[in-house]
Amino acid sequence: MHIKILGSGCAKCNRLEQLTREAVAELGLEASFEHVTEMDRILAYPIMTTPALVVDEQVKVSGRIPSKDELRAWLQG
């Protein structure tokens, strides 16, 4: 599983990464993480606002920090 956090590196982006890492650990999953901060790479995805979460090239959420329950459901799916 490859997980990307899209955003400039702001507090919300860092919080999304932290929560996602916690959810991955709780589920016992193997995942690689990438924090994408370059605007041209972020704009390659169909999002309007950051932070955004991309799992295996599928955008799961953008513009808000999801709950840990939401994260676990997306990661298990």
User: How many separate structural domains?
Assistant: 1
- Spans of at least 5 consecutive residues with low confidence: none
What is the CATH third-level topology name?
Answer: Glutaredoxin
Report the strand count: 4
- In round numbers, the mean pLDDT is 96
Alpha-carbon distance between the two ends: 11 Å
Please describe what this structure looks like.
- There is one protein chain.
- By secondary structure, this protein is of the alpha+beta class.
- The protein has one domain (2-76): Glutaredoxin, CATH 3.40.30.10.
- The chain is 39% helix and 25% strand.
- It has helices spanning 11-27, 39-42, 68-76, and strands at 2-6, 32-36, 52-55, 58-62.
- Strand 1 (2-6), helix 1 and strand 2 (32-36) form a beta-alpha-beta unit.
- Helix 1 crosses helix 3.
Secondary structure layout plus pairing:
Elements: E1 2-6, H1 11-27, E2 32-36, H2 39-42, E3 52-55, E4 58-62, H3 68-76
Parallel strand pairs: 1-2
Antiparallel strand pairs: 1-3, 3-4
Helix pairs in contact: 1-3
